[in-house]
């Protein structure tokens, strides 16, 4: 269970950061927390020659470098640009515990550059500072991979990646944020650290990302700097904060919320802008509900994970005390995150001990995972199946790693999302960065 991230002051969110990035030795300690020390000039030269020699002798058998697992970390690291067709970094301005992709009408599976995507995040500002829901449009995302024979300076005259942002004031830090699927309006649900779940209609704000002058200059300026407005609907029946939050992908407007005291509520959409929240929470978990996932096929079936180390499958058509249909003791530590495969009956779970497990839901009652991985040396903070390939998932951890098809990327990630545009993946960090 890992929830807080370092605070940073809110800056102008419309900002792209340059590449390559560097990881300094004094920021990279060994797993025990001890520094590896410094190298003398002669030692450093020998170290570099040794590394270069190994690379030259094994250029056809490169190995994945895993940060934190070597006795000594290198003083400086550059990202491997040849691993990415496109890599850009943007600054949202403040740490975000959660972000989500805003669905657009530009088409799925698009791969032609430059690309455009829409992202929404919720801030965790310093105590006493205003928090925001931040809507971002990232566009003119040009291809960064330079193939053999290409001139990396040939596009220097073209405009670089751009970012537009619109902000909405939010009461309390945003523990989790989820964008609704299958609805006509751009609905987003937020979990506040103050114990309230709110639903917002961000349709006008998304339009402002494309047309900043819509509604007049004064209204546009208010949205850009983060104005105050009321949510479409709010529920404070949990009486404590929480992190479990998920919209149903097959039943538009249906929402599930889970809190830190084990309670799970199902929201049913009624007339426009109104929800009926179940009078009784689903009964089963004995500790904090950390994540919720709806079935991609069954509108009444959902999965949850908890600090009680279990993963449970529910049918919300049943009475609250009988809704839990299947339970497995999934991990030996807190289960932080889960993700339901979009096309196969598979569920992946990630825990506090860094372990990842894949569950075949046809064999779920037996309590045996189909596969187990120990990629991370710290708590798993997010996991997500790829939309374009049912055999691939990405995970992030508190060990400064994102794992995806044996590719490793550094910096402290809080959440990871696959974008429906081809094989793009979005990463969120505790530094307010987006990639």
From TrEMBL:
SMART domains: WD40. It comes from the Eukaryota. Pfam families: CAF1C_H4-bd (PF12265), WD40 (PF00400). Gene3D superfamilies: YVTN repeat-like/Quinoprotein amine dehydrogenase (2.130.10.10). It is found in: Nucleus. GO terms for cellular component: nucleolus. Signal peptide: none annotated. This is Glutamate-rich WD repeat-containing protein 1. It comes from Geodia barretti.
């Amino acid at each position: 269970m890992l929830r807080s991230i370092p605070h940073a002051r809110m800056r102008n969110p419309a900002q792209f950061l340059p590449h390559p990035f560097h990881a300094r030795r004094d920021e990279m300690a060994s797993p025990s927390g001890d520094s590896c020390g410094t190298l003398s000039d002669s030692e450093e030269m020998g170290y570099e020659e040794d590394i270069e020699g190994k690379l030259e002798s094994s250029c056809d058998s490169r190995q994945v470098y895993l940060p934190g697992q070597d006795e000594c970390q290198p003083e400086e690291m550059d990202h491997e640009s040849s691993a990415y067709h496109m890599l850009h970094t943007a600054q949202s301005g403040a740490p975000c515990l959660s972000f989500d992709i805003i669905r657009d009408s530009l088409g799925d599976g698009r791969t032609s550059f430059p690309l455009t995507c829409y992202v929404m995040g919720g801030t965790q500002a310093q105590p006493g500072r205003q928090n925001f829901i931040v809507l971002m449009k990232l566009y003119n995302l040009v291809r960064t991979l330079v193939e053999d024979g290409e001139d990396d300076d040939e596009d220097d005259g073209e405009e670089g990646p751009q970012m537009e942002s619109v902000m909405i004031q939010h009461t309390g830090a945003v523990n989790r944020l989820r964008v609704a699927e299958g609805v006509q309006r751009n609905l987003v649900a937020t979990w506040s650290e103050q114990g309230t779940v709110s639903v917002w209609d961000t349709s006008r704000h998304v339009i402002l990302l494309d047309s900043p002058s819509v509604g007049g200059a004064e209204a546009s300026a208010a949205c850009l700097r983060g104005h105050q407005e009321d949510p479409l609907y709010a529920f404070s029946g949990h009486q404590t904060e929480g992190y479990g939050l998920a919209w149903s992908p097959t039943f538009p407007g249906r929402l599930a919320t889970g809190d830190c005291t084990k309670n799970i509520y199902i929201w049913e959409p009624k007339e426009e802008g109104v929800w009926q929240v179940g009078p009784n929470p689903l009964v089963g978990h004995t500790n904090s509900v950390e994540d919720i996932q709806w079935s991609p096929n069954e509108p009444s079936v959902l999965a949850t994970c908890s600090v009680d180390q279990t993963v449970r499958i529910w049918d919300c058509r049943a009475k609250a005390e009988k809704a839990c249909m299947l339970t497995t003791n999934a991990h030996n530590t807190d289960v932080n995150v889960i993700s339901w495969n979009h096309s196969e009956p598979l569920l992946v779970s990630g825990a506090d001990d860094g372990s990842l497990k894949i569950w075949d839901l046809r064999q779920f009652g037996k309590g045996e995972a189909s596969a187990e991985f120990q990629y991370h040396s710290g708590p798993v903070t997010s996991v997500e199946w790829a939309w374009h390939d049912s055999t691939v998932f990405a995970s992030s951890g508190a060990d400064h790693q994102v794992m995806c098809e044996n590719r490793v990327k550094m910096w402290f990630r809080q959440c990871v999302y696959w974008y429906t545009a081809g094989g793009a993946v979005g990463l969120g960090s505790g530094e307010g960065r987006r990639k």
